[in-house]
Amino acid sequence: NSISCCEQLEREKEGVRVSLEALFQKLQEQHQTELQQLEERLKEFYSAEWDKTHEAYQREADKCQALMQQQ
């Protein structure tokens, strides 16, 4: 009877281990997906910021050039 009890506990232990490994794998994949999404959002944000900065610089350069041509 104690042997069957030990075998039952071993089966339950294995079941829990398999479930935890599956959960861990799922969480790892979810984490990786979230990291990729965050990286993409950051790239989009900094690209937009770069574009705005470049446009502002170009406007100022155009103003300076226009002033120099007026003189």
UniProtKB/TrEMBL annotation:
<comment type="similarity">
    <text>Belongs to the MTUS1 family.</text>
</comment>
<dbReference type="GO" id="GO:0005634">
    <property type="term" value="C:nucleus"/>
</dbReference>
<feature type="coiled-coil region">
    <location>
        <begin position="6"/>
        <end position="48"/>
    </location>
</feature>
<dbReference type="InterPro" id="IPR051293">
    <property type="entry name" value="MTUS1/CCDC69"/>
</dbReference>
<protein>
    <submittedName>
        <fullName>Uncharacterized protein</fullName>
    </submittedName>
</protein>
<keyword id="KW-0175">Coiled coil</keyword>
<keyword id="KW-0539">Nucleus</keyword>
